[in-house]
Amino acid sequence: MLFKCVPGLLAVLLLLVGFISARIHKFNIKKDSRRFISLSTFGFYKDGILDVSLINFKAVPFKESAVFGFTLDRTLSDAMNPYLDSHDKCVLQGATSTKSDYEQRDETAVIYFTFDLKETRLMVNCSSNVHSLHIYQNSSAIWLARNKRGSMKSLSDTALFPRKKRDSSPHELRQSNNTKSNGAAVESTSCSKTLPMSVHEVNNEKLYNTSFAMYVANEDQEGLYNLYFHNCPNYGPYRTEVDFSMEIKEMNDNNFLSAGEMPLPELYFMMAVLFFLSGCFWVYILKHSKHPVFKLHYLMAVLVYLKSLSLLFHGINFHFIQTKGEHVAAWAVLYYITHLLKGAVLFITIVLIGTGWTFIKHILADKDKKLFMIVIPLQVLANVAEIIIEESEEGDIEHNTWRYVFILVDLLCCGAIMFPVVWSIRHLQEAAHMDGKAAANLRKLKLFRHFYIMIVCYIYFTRVIVFLLTIAVPFQYQWLDEMFREMTNYVFFVLTGYKFRPASANPYFTLSPEELAQEDDDDETDIVLFSSVSGGSAMAEGLSKVNKVIKVNRSNISEVPSTQEERDTLISKRESLLEYD
Predict the structure, then answer these.
(1) What residues form DSSP beta bridges with 169?
(2) Domain boundaries 264-499, corresponding CATH code
């Protein structure tokens, strides 16, 4: 069923890749009534450039006095910005005041871009803790200024909004005097500037266009920048819908990756090689093993190779984003296909191990099959949601919707794969007290408990710890969360392979002396009952010979490890005796 869905999923992935341009963002907002829209998050180093273009903005109902605009705030980590949901009024209202309510609650540096629709201009202001800022009309002006001055130092000396007192020029405007506000003297340290907006009419509707670019001129301006659009009328009782298109370009000195993502291509390539070599070593173990090798062992090898391919294609995808700012569709689709297959095979493998398939039983029960019918579709949906999140723009409504879907479905999948392990533990607990094979079942029970703990730790580390690490580390070290996730995956794969490796001493694959002794007693009882019921001395004599042969073979098990063929032969002999009966 999974492979039948691949063509349809492939078409969806091709459609997604065709419309998304990675770190060069191009997207449309239609009939959106959200109070604020998260547009982009990017970590900038020195010489980084942010270029933003607003195209064909309109509001319904339209009022020239309505307040719309952007905020660009700078933080040092990816922690949540509390002012967005906690404020009962728009942060753009009163942005030109001496110290806004937002600034009183938070010391995050904020730049305000407010639309003046009546005068067709973009008013730029910043909070008091913005010490220097370089805002231009577009990125072309930045490149022109850099080429004209010939050095970064010269450009850095022409900050548009410097905090040190200096003479004003046509390129800068600063307010740093004591001004009167309501009869009281207030010290103002705000900065202000205006950028042009253009307007044209289409079908009697006014459409506005504007742009701005920011240049990170020194190390003090480095950080994680968050760009938001604000719809201030929606903080009132009425709703205003907005339509506009956005083009956002972000780069760090000819590198289109965020500061915290720059090491990711090398990390993915390194982990791909590590998983590939581990897969080769696992196949070598299976091929040269003198002990039973099951189909599930080869499925585990397929999983490792799929993981390696997924990381390889992911690294190639990031490499092209790093150099060109956009996906190469072929590599992106290859990554998404292998990523989807890897996720499905991973959960299938965990469920099969948890149910004890091929290890302690050869047939899946009805409840096990029903679990697969639940887990596999959920896991496919979770992977599709993750792909859509990665390919959709941060400002799209679908982005947040699919993010919530992914979190919910991923938690359901993680909870579902725990059930087969719990069932196996419960089954072994009951068997340890009922069938007389307590020692062997307790050893298997101990291993299943270890596997259960491994799954819990795997889920906890890859879902919780990684998230906490993402919001805690500085912006330039955000790649650590991916490294931690991939290393956790590798450790989980290695431990699972070690626990379930083909080995004579592994309680999953071999019968213990207690089990062998118990089976001897069971065979003798079956033969006595059969002979007494049949009443044939010749038949009983023949069966006793067979029983002696079986006993002789079992007497050598302590010296030669039991194999799957021997166990299958024994089972077939028992079944033939019962059929004859």
Answers:
(1) 172
(2) 1.20.1070
Could you identify the residue written with the tokens 């850099």?
146
Instruction: Tell me which residue of 350, 361, 363 sits closest to 422, measured CA to CA.
Output: 350
The better pLDDT of the pair 359, 14 is held by 359
As a three-state string, the secondary structure of 346-387 is HHHHHHHHHHCECCCECCCCHHHHHHHHHHHHHHHHHHHHHH
Q: Name the pairing type of β-strands 178-181 and 241-252.
A: unpaired
User: What is the residue extent of each domain of the chain?
Assistant: 24-163+185-252, 264-499, 513-556+567-580
Determine the Cα–Cα distance for residues 56 and 60; give it in Å rounded to an integer.
13
Q: Cα(first)–Cα(last) distance of the chain, in Å?
A: 42
- DSSP calls for 119-176: TTEEEEEE-TT-----EESSHHHHHHHHHHH-SHHHHHTT-SS-SS----BTTB-B--
CA distance 440 to 161: 76
Could you tell me the CA-to-CA distances from 344 to 305, 417, 498 in Å, in that order? 14, 12, 22
Q: Per residue in 428-467, pLDDT tens?
A: 777 666 665 656 666 666 777 788 888 888 988 888 888 8
Choose among 381, 382, 282, 390: nearest CA to 335.
Answer: 390
* pLDDT, tens digit, 9 for 90 and up, residues 53-78: 999 999 999 998 999 999 999 988 87
Distance between CA atoms of residues 330 and 576, nearest Å = 57
- Phi, psi for 282 (deg, rounded to 5): -65, -45
Question: From CA 240, how far away is CA 233, in angstroms rounded?
Answer: 6
What CATH class does 24-163+185-252 carry? Answer: mainly beta
Beta strands 178-181 and 48-60 are: unpaired
**Residue in 105, 73, 112, 75 with CA at minimum distance from that of residue 91:** 112
Mean pLDDT of the residues in the chain: 75
Nearest alpha-carbon partner for 50 in 35, 40, 38: 40
Distance CA 337, CA 354 (A): 26
DSSP 476-540: GGTHHHHHHHHHHHHHHHHHHHHHTS--TT-TTTS--HHHHHHHHHHHHHHHHHHHHHH--HHHH
Q: Are 319 and 313 in contact (CB under 8 A)?
A: no
**Model pTM score:** 0.74
User: Do 230 and 91 form a contact (C-beta atoms < 8 A)?
Assistant: yes
Q: Among 209, 248, 202, 203, which Cα is nearest to 55's?
A: 209
230: phi then psi, degrees, rounded to nearest 5: -120, 130
